[in-house]
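Reposting from the mailing list since nobody answered there.

I have sequence plus structure tokens for a pair of proteins and want to know whether others read the tokens the same way I do. The first protein:
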Amino acid sequence: MNSKFAATVAKSILAVALIVSANAAQTNTTYPVIAVDHGPNSPAQQSKPYVVLVSLDGFRYDYPQKYGAPHLDAIAQRGASAPDGMYPSYPSVTFPNHYAIITGLYPEHTGIVANKFYDPARHERYSYTDAKSVSDGTWYSGVPLWSLAEQQSMRTACFFWPASEAEIAAQRPSFYLLYESKVPSETKINQVVAWLNLPPAQRPHFITVYFPEVDGAGHAFGPDSPLTAAAVKDLDNAVGRLDAALSKLPLRINIIIIADHGMETTQGDWINLDAYADLSNFETDGALLYPKSEEAAQKAYEQLRSASPKFKAYRRRDVPPELHYSDNPRIGDPVVIATGPYWIRARNDLNEPHPHSLGQHGYDPYRMKSMRAVFYAAGPDIRPHTTLPPFDNVSIYPMIAKILDLPVGTIDGDPTVLAGILTKK
């Protein structure tokens, strides 16, 4: 057998093995796993730890104390937690924060500056509900953790995470699913366990899993509702089942549990900015304002800056620096920031006379404590009985990269912030 033919045969055998492994990892037919052939984990990567990153969307930092979450409390006892919460990036909404966590970059640097926005350079709109834009990697800057790992021949898997359906930094996860809003928790738990039961060559070392239920309850019923309390308890039980399943595997697994933001009871009716300012020379999306000229931007700013105590208006260059929300034209100009839990939009384009939910987020996380999110971590690489003061969520990225021994490029996250919770400095 000549060397070229032998190499071809070996490659074919490997491809078949990957397909067989992918099929073995498929625990259900209702929500199919998409497998991408990146080849096996390199020998160097096979000996490294595992990280399961769990997102509990909208799980406010104080829900465990407010409603009881014994499984999260148990994880905190044997690992690390932030009792006073973790700061989401501004705006404290789902897509910008999930993508900030997974890239270590603030939204102004990832380009995902809101759930929905307009790009003045592309003359296009991005929306978290539009599958075409969500799966288009050209919208995203930064290197997600799954792309970072895949670049180093470490396999990854995502049971949902904003942007995991797109090719970013020339990579996709080895395993991922197209998003569905109503997937049973047990399906997700079983799939994570199945991935971790793959042979070492195909087994993902970095896995994400996303649960939306608490966010949905918080929006629909408000954070103080008994129905939100029930959703918290249900999801805490799911976390307990996942944690128990992981503990039975003979692997060095670290579980990290986060939320993207908190939740607050909203007040009042819609505030329409075009009632205070001339927006005829603007593109708009939600409360974001995109001027067609500098003159239009300055005129609208002057009209808005003292218009209402319920919001503040800034020229983009003057947005408070702690918000890290000025370095991208997708943000718009001027920038309007609510001073409380108010409903703000540029104009009534959607013909919605009244807000349709009792709970909301997106507000300044440094001004409103209720925007803070949970953080828990436990495993063989996490120091037990460790607590942290509030920190910016972009610093999770370098911590996970440290556990997985992956090289980190330029990011906004600070590697020293969470260094103290790691067993290996």
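The second protein, same order (residues first, tokens after):
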Amino acid sequence: MAEYLRSSTRPVQSDSPTLDWTLVLAGGEGTRLAEYVERRFGHRIPKQFCRLLGSRSMLEHTLDRLNRLTPAARTLAVIGTDQAALAMPQLAGRCDHVFRQPAARDTGIALYVALAMVLRWTPNAIVAITPADHYVAPADAYVEQVRRARSIAARRRDTVVLLGARPTEPDPDLGYLAIGGPIASLPGALAVDAFVEKPAVTRASALIRGGALWNTMVMCATASTLWELGRAVEPGLFDLLEALIPLVGTRHEDTALAHVYRTAGALGFSRGVLERSPARLVAVALDGVEWSDWGRPERVETTLALRRSRALVSDASALVA
């Protein structure tokens, strides 16, 4: 069995254009939240494995939402080099395929190595990609928006469909989607004029005034379209990655994966790929859905405080009634 890629079921192999996959990016180290996690739980572990809300971890919340759209048999998670002991119990039953990275790399490398696996198994698949550490509510409305994004990606197979959240402040840590207007042929889809990764506060404010959305890093697209966008900006890297595809599932898989991680340079997906490809992007707005990138302690505490306040109001209303 492969050391880096573990599958509890045999990967589906098909050329069908109607099959879908979910790819969960769960390999972050959670550095920005490390002290906060230690204060709450007494030790430092990456935030996606923490039970910051309720009895499930952020990773478990993420998978439970997306399993409504894609079964565990077509769900692939990317985890960090030393995260298997934390991750595997939480992934069991929710995600049948787990790629443990040989080394720490930027998001782009993790994403594209995982896509190489999907392309080996189901080359015409539509893939929903999501981080593992974001807060969304309510779950039902969110899942329907992801379903809509996936449907749009199926209709326009040369496009990446990004879920965008309505900004509440000019946050310089997030990416922004400058919105053009509705696309008549794709109900629910919005044109993207520009993708701006982590702008200064002044520019973020201007983007918000112009109707921009926050990029949630949740997206749907065909695996081949995502691959094409990456190859356009880093052709040398993709020569290396394309040599990996036929080796997935063979006895050479581990050697090939280790070689990619030893040889490839860094590739930031947002800045390196999406920011350079606005003509291939469309957006779906997360209307009626609360979203927060829990990358800073104050974001977590603000969300939790709002939830407690609403619960108190709801309890008081019930008593009055």
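Reply #1 (J.P.):
I read it the same way you do. Residues 126 and 222 are 4 Å apart (CA to CA).
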